[in-house]
Design goal:
Layout lengths: L8 E2 L2 E9 L3 E8 L10 E6 L7 H13 L11 E5 L6 E5 L4 E2 L1 H5 L6 H20 L2 E2 L8 E3 L5 E3 L6 E2 L5 H5 L12 H4 L6 H17 L10 H5 L9 H4 L5 H10 L11 H9 L8 H4 L6 H12 L9 H7 L2 E5 L7 H16 L5 E8 L1 H4 L5 H19 L9 E7 L3 H11 L4 E5 L5 H4 L5 H8 L3 E5 L3 H10 L3
Parallel strand pairs: 12-13, 12-15, 13-14, 15-16
Antiparallel strand pairs: 1-2, 2-3, 3-4, 4-6, 5-6, 7-9, 8-11, 9-10
The structure holds adenosine-5'-triphosphate and magnesium ion.
Adenosine-5'-triphosphate binds next to strand 2, strand 3, strand 4 and strand 6.
Length: 479
């Protein structure tokens, strides 16, 4: 397909330079011919290659992207602007996003350090999570389809192989074989299962592995047999390539790359959480190993994979709701045992009905509490003391099967700190005490629980002290 000359007019857009000329599409910078229509942000036009010799996949992918991109919103996708129809002049005009594709970091002469890898990974995971919350799975995440903006946030591109639960899956109907890019495609995609959000987590795992080691965990297979390898094969641990990598990073990467989706993170928010809190990653054998599994183990996995039936997974949004990040705000000042007890009961109940949920226990110290001493050393002592308190509080909780972490935040405005924490970590459920004392006052003043319930981006459970406990207290005091 010939490149369009700068200055060419297409359907009211003036074409500027070509940004990308690939096998599937050309991308141009464009502007509205009429200044009056300027949307206030730069534009890019994607024109699929559709001359004789280009595959039918190009046309189907174009249709898929045309269906899905306008349905998506938020800071992690380019804004859709206009489209030309398939028969006359197929094109999509969208927001041009300033940034570097992830390929840029892979092309650098030196591998990024663990902190940078975690930053890039968390940005990708949060972007994927935003897509999943909209019931869309990308299914073609790879370095060329991820843009990192100057502020560090990620924007996902290229929805030609994606699927969206609200629209018919044209690709599932058209092609019954694997659809995706061989190096990054998840095992379940290899056998034709589309729409599992954990497939995107696998692809992010492949990119993290590449960033960490410069190698592809499963190579770039060209045959069906080569592709199927990932159904049973465990890649060499990243630390075998690069011993200076921390165990927590290897633990995270190998969890993303688990052959069975159920053994990966249940949602991309969980992955982002671990990448943002490396100190609290529970390191298992996965993070410590220095070699891949033995031949015998691989043989067992191969046999298991051969007989495996892949279950259709729930809608992305439902899957996220089934395994939310649960946050509990544990007070430390002026707090009764009954409140702490009731809070713990509420957390136990919430976790009990959500097997994959992770728990973040949070305490906010206000500067008055932390400035009890001037020296920095005693501040860390105070921090440690509160961490220990949190752990002690959580100790009776039945936590088997749940990841748990403890966080001591410092902020003057407790309510705001809790809301920000919930936003930043994509918390699905927040539990906090209702502060039932002073109820009369709450009509007039915005107390912390009231403000949090109003402003938090998630479901909030306000826990009152439970009656049985009060009664017990009553008996004890002889009432
Ligand atoms: N909206 C955009 N803003 C900025 N850059 C973009 C945008 N869309 C695409 N690009 C650039 O163009 C490249 C290719 O875009 P895209 O992934 O959508 O096309 P493609 O179908 O993969 O093309 P091919 O397979 O032929 O490479 C991206 O890696 C990115 O560098
Ligand atoms: Mg692409």
């Amino acid at each position: 397909m010939k490149l369009l000359e700068p200055g060419t007019e297409v359907d009211g857009f003036v074409v500027r330079e070509c940004i990308h000329a690939g096998g599937m599409a050309h991308i141009y910078a464009v502007e509205y011919a009429s200044r009056a229509r300027d949307p206030g942000f730069p534009l890019a036009m994607k024109i699929p290659r559709m001359t004789a010799g280009d595959g039918a996949e190009n046309i189907v992918s174009f249709e898929v992207e045309l269906q899905i991109l306008p349905a998506l919103s938020g800071p992690h996708v380019p804004r859709f602007v206009a489209a030309g129809d398939l028969l006359h002049l197929p094109y999509i005009v969208m927001e041009y996003v300033h940034g570097q594709t992830l390929q840029h970091w892979l092309d650098l002469p030196e591998r990024p350090d663990a902190a940078r890898i975690a930053q890039l990974g968390a940005a990708m995971a949060l972007a994927a999570h935003s897509l999943h919350q909209q019931n869309c799975c990308h299914l073609d995440l790879k370095p060329g389809n991820v843009l990192i903006k100057p502020d560090g946030g990620a924007v996902l591109l290229d929805f030609g192989l994606s699927c969206h639960a609200h629209y018919p899956d044209l690709l599932a109907e058209e092609m019954r074989k694997a659809v995706g890019s061989p190096a990054w495609i998840a095992p379940e995609q290899v056998v034709g299962v589309r729409g599992d959000l954990r497939s995107d987590i696998f692809a992010i795992g492949v990119m993290l592995y590449e960033l960490a080691t410069g190698e592809l965990p499963f190579g770039a297979p060209t045959t069906q047999g080569g592709l199927r390898q990932r159904l049973w094969m465990t890649p060499p641990p990243p630390r075998a390539h690069r011993p200076d990598l921390p165990e927590w990073l290897q633990e995270i990467i190998l969890r993303c790359l688990e052959a069975e989706a159920a053994n990966r993170y249940p949602s991309a928010a969980h992955l982002a959480f671990d990448l943002a809190n490396p100190g609290q990653v529970a390191i298992t054998e996965r993070g410590q190993r220095t070699q891949g599994p033995s031949l015998g183990k691989h043989l067992k996995r191969w046999v298991k994979a051969a007989g495996m039936h892949y279950q259709p997974s729930p809608l992305p949004k439902n899957q996220i709701e089934q395994a939310p990040i649960v946050m509990v705000a544990v007070p430390h000042e002026d707090v009764q045992d009954a409140t702490l007890y009731s809070l713990r009961e509420a957390v136990a109940r919430s976790l009990g009905i959500r097997p994959g949920a992770r728990l973040a226990c949070v305490t906010v110290l206000s500067p008055s509490a932390s400035s009890t001493s001037d020296s920095e050393r005693s501040e860390t002592t105070l921090h440690r003391m509160h961490l220990a308190r949190l752990k002690q509080w959580a100790q009776p909780l039945p936590l088997a099967g749940h990841s748990v972490s403890y966080h001591v935040l410092e902020a003057g405005d407790v309510g705001q700190a809790l809301v920000r924490y919930a936003e930043g970590n994509r918390v699905g459920l927040m539990i906090l005490g209702a502060a039932t004392h002073g109820l009369q006052l709450q009509r007039f003043i915005d107390t912390v629980p009231i403000r949090v319930a109003r402003d938090a981006p998630c479901t909030v459970i306000l826990v009152k002290q439970q009656l049985p406990f009060n009664q017990l207290q009553g008996h004890a005091s002889g009432e």
